[in-house]
Amino acid sequence: MDKALYLAMSGGVQTMGAQTIHANNLANVSTTGFRADFEQARSMQVYGDHYPSRVYAMTENPATRYSEGDMIQTGRNLDVAVSGEGFIAVYDDKGQEAYTRAGDLQINAAGQLVTGRGLPIAGVDGPIFLPPVDKINITSDGSISVVPQGGAANEIAVINQIKLVMPDSQALRKEEDGLIHAKDGQAFELDPNVQLVSGFIEGSNVNAVEEMTHIMDLSRRFEMNIKMMDSIKQNGDSSARILQRSA
User: Fold this and answer.
1) Residues 196/83, Cβ–Cβ less than 8 Å
2) How far apart are CA 58 and CA 115, in angstroms?
3) In the chain, what is the straight-line distance between the N-terminal and C-terminal CA atoms, in Å?
4) E runs forming strands in 64-171
5) Does the pLDDT at position 247 exceed 60?
6) Where are the transmembrane segments (predicted)?
């Protein structure tokens, strides 16, 4: 009876973990550049002093979906979207290079080019800082040209270039900060084949209907595990009553 209880309990716990993954996907259905996480369950043997005859369910996040999201036209000069494969390089909270598809760029109070989350954009020579400008334009290769504040319309200066990379998806991992990182921790080189589209942002690649279906299915699984635990408890109580009467 304890074996059945253990299996039902572990199944319920892992089902809750799976629900967390899909709920997070659904919560980010409108997040710019968000990449959905996959979830899978598999059986794991319990190893101990004897033969591993028991197994338990384990939920894991094996990969991230890197397919493209919908292109949303904004007409804003600082909005850019990666066309096809590739990523925009940024610096995470620890100052390490990471990668994103979120191209809702801003200029903060210090004149630094950042994402909508406030993460610094990586240029070819480090963070990108801009002088006061009247006009800014980002070309398909990530080059940033500006008209300085108070300058003539033909006084165009190229300030920097956004670092764009195209690594193999097998060399990437998505971490808890929502950013894409290199598995070996090394920065990738700039790839001239990655192209940007100005005036657009890329939406999330989450399929809301698919995520809702998964969540409903997992809810039924969780209820089944709870019912099984109740049944085991009732069987245990019945066995105890039988023993009491026998005594």
Assistant:
1) yes
2) 36
3) 21
4) 71-73, 80-83, 87-91, 97-100, 106-107, 113-114, 122-123, 126-127, 133-138, 143-148, 157-161, 164-165
5) no
6) none
Reported as a single tens digit per residue, the pLDDT across 158-197 is 889 999 999 998 999 999 899 999 999 899 999 999 999 9
What are the domain boundaries of the chain?
2-65+206-246, 71-202
Tokens of 32: 């710019």
The answer for 56, left when phi > 0, alpha when psi is -120 to 50, beta otherwise, is beta
Beta bridge partners of 100: 88
Global pTM value: 0.82
Of residues 143, 115, 145, 140, the one with CA closest to residue 196: 140
Is residue 122 within 8 A of residue 129, CB to CB? The reply is: no
Q: pLDDT digits over 33-85, tens only?
A: 999 999 888 777 877 777 777 777 788 888 899 999 999 999 999 999 999 99
Phi, psi angle pair for 9, to nearest 5°: -65, -50
Distance between alpha carbon 9 and the CA centroid of its chain, in Å? Answer: 28
